[in-house]
Structures are given as structure tokens and as C-alpha cells.
Specification:
Blueprint (H helix, E strand, L loop, with lengths): L2 E6 L7 H9 L4 E4 L8 E5 L2 E5 L12 E4 L4 E2 L1 H13 L7 E4 L3 E2 L2 H14 L11 H9 L12 H12 L3 H8 L5 H4 L1 H15 L3 E2 L1 H10 L4 E4 L25 H6 L8 E7 L2 E3 L12 H9 L12 E3 L1 E2 H11 L3 E5 L9 E9 L5 E2 L6 H6 L1 E8 L16 H14 L3 E5 L7 E3 L16
Parallel strand pairs: 1-10, 1-11, 2-5, 2-10, 5-7, 6-8, 7-9, 11-15, 14-16, 15-19
Antiparallel strand pairs: 3-4, 12-13, 16-17, 16-18, 19-20
Helix pairs in contact: 3-4, 5-8
The structure holds guanosine-5'-diphosphate (GDP), 6-O-phosphoryl inosine monophosphate and magnesium ion.
Amino acid sequence: MPGLVIVGAQWGDEGKGKVVDLMAEQADAVVRFQGGNNAGHTIVRDGEEFKFHLVPSGILYPGKTCIIGNGVVVDPSVLLGELDGLSRAGLDISGLKVSANAHVIMPYHIALDHSGEARLGKNEIGTTKRGIGPCYADKAARLGIRVQDMLDEKILKKKIMAALEPKQLMLRPYERDPAWAPRLDLQQMTEDLLTFGHRLEKHIADTSSLIWKTLDAGKLALFEGAQATMLDIDHGTYPFVTSSNPVSGAATIGAGVGIHDIDEVWGVAKAYATRVGAGPFPTELFDATGDLLRENGHEFGTTTGRPRRCGWIDLVALRYACRLNTLDALVITKLDVLTGLDTIKVCTEYRGADDATFETFPYHQSVLHRARGVYEELPGWSEDITGCRTEADLPQAARDYLAFLAERVGTPIVQVGVGPGREQQIWTESGQTASKLRPTANA
Ligand code: GDP
Ligand code: IMO
Ligand code: MG
């Protein structure tokens, strides 16, 4: 005790990295529990920007145990690249631990992710093409290569051969492609993985027991979600989802802890909404306001650089996320991006194809695809809020906007972001009772 889970409450890129970095100061361990390098988490420290795809967002604090849990899919070359970058920047990476049971993203997973998207044509999901889906598919089919396998040549080769067998037909075009062929060669893959394994050996560990030690000593373990609720493979907008469970419940499975180890769950949401990749997005804006949010919010993917689709905040989806994740508190980020708008729209319900309105998130795909937001309008503000450090510094209209969100979602807001810097995060008074983790002096 205690365990704090921080998850995305929308479609990803809500600013989870920033919130985790801020809370990591109090934590002993920071744990990624699902996803892979499809994630892109940005932290801005003293004006310097760090982007992490696999390494947990606590790594900037020397001495913290930063864990890549068993539920994560690991591309070892990406992980080593990130670690090399951190070492070059003079940062201490000795606390980084990788679960021996985490699954490895292989070159053939990346090829299959490309081929799957190509086959879907214009119905493509818009994956990050990092091999995430094919890797989780192999895990479920019991054909996966695990981190521990990188340490044993005999086992490794046997497992790669078994994994390649059912994929031969699909991989054939890639094996003939000079750009892919060397990466898909069995001998080359085995050698590369052994080299990666050798380099990673000192980081490979029984990570669950490390987390138990933290929790049993009464220290804070932070569970850092990647992707987000609406991209959850079971509860999101299937099939336009990722291949893991980014919801809070998955922290237990993906880290190896029990449900009683979790004391608090926070959901991170932007003051508006974005989505990258295809799929239903009922509050999407196709006009100049959408462009303005993209420009002001720098809404371009951290991982792929794609422009993010932008829209108004969606309280139907947010209420669903609150219930699904049992959120104790919300963190609202990027409030500063709304500055300058005369009015701000908030989606409070959906209108379906039959013109009827409803307030709960539809479980049926066809209903969701046709749903459009129904809005209430709130007054905007024009004051620059990036220098605000307490709730009282915010203009009344911004405070009213936050109060409206908290009231209509039924969940208190614990922190508000007014800029990318770690000092630009306000602890709210209203959220004081929602979290035991608020430092006594206002940060
Ligand atoms: P994550 O994937 O949830 O960690 O989020 P990303 O890092 O992909 O995207 C969030 C972006 O918003 C990053 O560039 C952050 O630096 C930035 N950001 C986070 N919080 C705020 C905020 O309150 N205001 C502004 N303007 N930017 C923010
Ligand atoms: P963070 O952790 C936003 C999206 C992709 C695509 C879908 C499936 O930075 O919030 P995948 O490669 O996972 O098979 O792609 O999921 N997606 C994300 N969108 N933020 C992310 O991560 C995402 N990770 C995956 O764009 O629509
Ligand atoms: Mg991101």
C-alpha cells in the first residue's frame, strides 16, 4: 500500500506522461503494465522535452525503480535505443527493470502489422505499425517469444521457428522484399535477439516481486497506463482499438498484483478530445475550431507524427470511463488550449440515427457509429492561464467550466493542466478529499 493507477480516460495522448512524472516524485516504483512502443509519453522538465515509448515516465528521478511489467510487449531495439538516449543525457538508468515474462515484438510482428493494415485498405484501423496487435495475438496463441527467451539460444531458435511456421504464407512477400528480408532471416533474428538479451540482462527481473516489496513496505507504486479507455480491446470502440486492455483493472494482470493492492485510480482527460487513427468519434470537429485546437494544442502524434483528430469534450464517453475504471479522480489537462474561445461546447448526450437522445455510452457498434454529440454551451475566457498556479488564479469562466465537468461526470477533479511544464499543473481544492496523495503544501 498504496497503489495508484493512472489511466487515459479518452482516446489517448491525454498527458498521462506528465501526470505520472509529477506523481513519481512521491513514488518508489513506476510500472508500465500494458501496451508497447505504440505509446508516446511526453514530459517537459525545465524546458527540456523527453518522449518515452517504453520506459516508464518515472525514469527522470534517479534511484526510482521503473518497471516494464509482464503485460507490456517489448521491442528490444526500441527499448535499448531509449536507454542509450537516456544514458547519453547523463541520466541514471540503473533502476530500469523488465519483466522476464513480458513478450517480445519480433520483426515478423511489425511486418504483419504493415500487411494487415494494407489488406484492410481504406478500412484500416490506423495502427502505429509497431507490431503490437500481432505480438499480442502470438501471446494468446501461445506462440510468443518472452524476454527470458532472449537469454537462451536453443530455446529461442526453437520458439522462433514454431512462431514462423503458421505465418509463412503471409510473410512471403516480405521475405522477397530486400528491405525486409534480412530482418526476417531466422539466423539473423536469433543472433539479434541474443545480442539484445545480453545487453538487457542486467535489467531483466522478477518484476512482480519488486512491486510487492514496494507495496508491502507501505511505499507508493504508480501504475502508468498507456493508450486509453476508449482504445481498450474489450471496452473500447472495437475494432478501432489497440490490442491490450488500457483500463485500470488491467494494472493487476499486467504488473502481477492483486486488486486489493490498488488504492486509488485517476483518469486523465483533456479539456477537449482528440483521437489519432480511425474509428468513431462523436464529437469530432471538421471546421476551423477543430483546426484551432490542433494548432494550439500541438495535436500531432508523439509516436507517428500524424495530425490528431480534434473535437469537444465528450461527457458520455467520460462518464463511461469513470465507471469502467472506478475513477476516484479526474485530471483535466490542456485547459490552456481552450483560452480565447468565445464559447466552449460540452457534449452531454448523444443523438442517435433515429433522432432520439441518450446519455449512456452505447454498447452496440452501429449505434455508436451513428451517434452525434448534443451540446451545452459555456462561456469561454480570454486571459492567459499558463501562469496560474492555484485554482483561485483561474478566471471565473475556467473554474465554472471545470465545475460543470466534475458535476456532470460525477467525479472530482484532482489536478488541472495549464501548460506542458511540470510546474503548470494545479492541485485543486475540490479534489482534496478525492486523493490521499495530495501533498500538504500546495505544489
Ligand atoms: P500521453 O500519451 O497521455 O502521455 O500524452 P502525449 O505526451 O502523447 O501528449 C500530450 C501532449 O500535451 C504532450 O506534448 C504534453 O507535453 C502536452 N501537455 C500535457 N499537459 C498539458 C497541458 O496542461 N497544457 C498543454 N498546453 N500541453 C500539455
Ligand atoms: P499513448 O499511450 C493515441 C491508436 C492507434 C490506432 C489504434 C491501434 O501515447 O496515449 P496499435 O498500434 O496500438 O495497434 O493501434 O490505437 N493508439 C494510440 N492513440 N495514443 C496512444 O498511446 C496510442 N497507441 C495506440 O493510433 O488508432
Ligand atoms: Mg501519447
